[in-house]
Design goal:
Residues 1-28 are annotated as: Disordered. InterPro entries: AAA+_ATPase, ABC_transporter-like_ATP-bd, ABC_transporter-like_CS, Metal_Ion_Import_ABC, P-loop_NTPase. Keywords: ATP-binding, Nucleotide-binding, Transport. It is a single chain. The protein is an alpha/beta fold. The chain has two domains: 33-134 and 169-292, 3-Layer(aba) Sandwich (Rossmann fold); 138-168. It has helices at residues 71-78, 111-114, 122-128, 143-152, 154-166, 171-183, 199-212, 229-244, 256-262, 279-284, 287-292; strands at 33-40, 48-55, 60-64, 86-91, 94-95, 105-108, 217-221, 248-252, 265-270, 272-278. A six-stranded mixed beta sheet has the order 6-7-8-3-9-10, sandwiched between helices. Strand 4 (86-91) and strand 5 form a beta hairpin. It is globular, with a radius of gyration of 21 Å. Bound molecules: adenosine-5'-triphosphate.
Length: 304
């Protein structure tokens, strides 16, 4: 285990995170994302055409492409938020549009949209990550087991039932919340309002929410737009540490310099896939110029 706390180097909170696809309950052969010949258009004209790609558990994949090239649309197809006109999209082995295990996915939006109108504290944001895990689902399905629990450990079992009925977080849930805050280096900001944070801190709080939800896929849509350069570096260090723990990272990124530095694999899109492969091969290929047009000369300086 080598997770990092961005601020202090602590590895708290990551000990129980699955490290392999098999540990995570996913058959090793089951891709996290699987698109087969997917075509989609909002109108009769496709904005994503004949895209086939798979993302395996533990990968760090960046999707790049010019403005309007279909990146967000592709992400929505991957997550089952849009249905392909042609082809098939699968998520953790299920049809993406029928996938109902949402807590497995942590979504971090552009910070501009994440920032709006949330006068709640960081801890409250992170706590939301636990909501799918609380409630009746946590109680034993078998009544006999519940009765046995009441006999053997009446106080603990009664408290579990009360928590389930009220949807309250248990002390274990709060420990997960605190661990997630520590992992992203935000323990000291737990009681700060989310509106009173810098862009980079806010994005780390949203990552903590995903960790508290025990997500094993992180989907990030241009997460560092508007975040200052130093915080951007810390943010990517955090993503790398989480990926090293086995979390699959799927990143839409505008900043090609960051992609080249951090992602293992690049999918370069402009309606169709222009390139899909290891980042160093992308750097050496002509995919960038073809997808972005003749003006795209420098990886670090391209305005996607
Ligand atoms: N809800 C929608 N209804 C109709 N057209 C849409 C919708 N969303 C996106 N489009 C169009 O689909 C195309 C692809 O858009 P998309 O947002 O997927 O691209 P993108 O690569 O994410 O762009 P950007 O980098 O600017 O965020 C664009 O031409 C866009 O105008």
């Amino acid at each position: 285990m080598n997770s990092q706390n961005v601020d202090s180097g602590s590895a708290e909170g990551m000990d129980e995170r699955p490290t392999t696809a098999t540990d995570a309950g996913i058959p090793a052969s089951e891709p996290v994302v699987d698109l087969a010949n997917v075509t989609f258009g909002y109108t009769a004209t496709p904005v994503v055409e004949d895209v086939s790609l798979t993302v395996e558990a533990g990968e760090y994949v960046a999707v790049v492409g010019p403005n309007g090239s279909g990146k967000s649309t592709l992400m929505q197809l991957m997550l089952g938020l849009l249905e392909p006109d042609v082809g098939a999209a699968r998520l953790f082995g299920d049809r993406a549009d029928r996938f109902d295990d949402g807590e497995r996915i942590g979504y971090v939006a552009q910070q501009a949209s994440a920032a709006t109108g949330m006068p709640i504290t960081v801890r409250e944001v992170v706590k939301m990550g636990r909501f799918p895990h609380v409630g009746f689902d946590r109680l034993p399905e078998d009544n006999r087991e519940l009765l046995d629990g009441l006999r053997a450990e009446p106080l603990d079992t009664a408290r579990d039932v009360a928590n389930a009925v009220s949807g309250r977080l248990s002390s274990e849930d709060w420990a997960v919340v605190d661990d997630a805050l520590a992992t992203v280096g935000m323990s000291g900001f737990a009681d700060r309002r989310i509106t009173e944070l810098s862009g980079g801190q806010r994005q780390r709080a949203f990552i903590a929410r995903a960790l508290a939800g025990e997500a094993d896929l992180l989907v990030l849509d241009e997460p560092t737009v508007g975040v200052d350069a130093e915080s951007v570096d810390a943010f990517y260090d955090l993503l790398a540490a989480l990926n090293a723990e086995g979390i699959t990272v799927l990143l839409i990124e505008h900043d090609l310099g960051a992609v080249v530095e951090h992602a293992d694999r690049v999918v370069c899109l402009n309606r169709e896939v222009y390139f899909d492969g290891p980042t160093d091969e992308f750097v050496d290929s002509d995919a960038l110029a073809r997808a972005f047009g003749a003006g795209a000369r420098s990886l670090a300086g391209v305005d996607g």
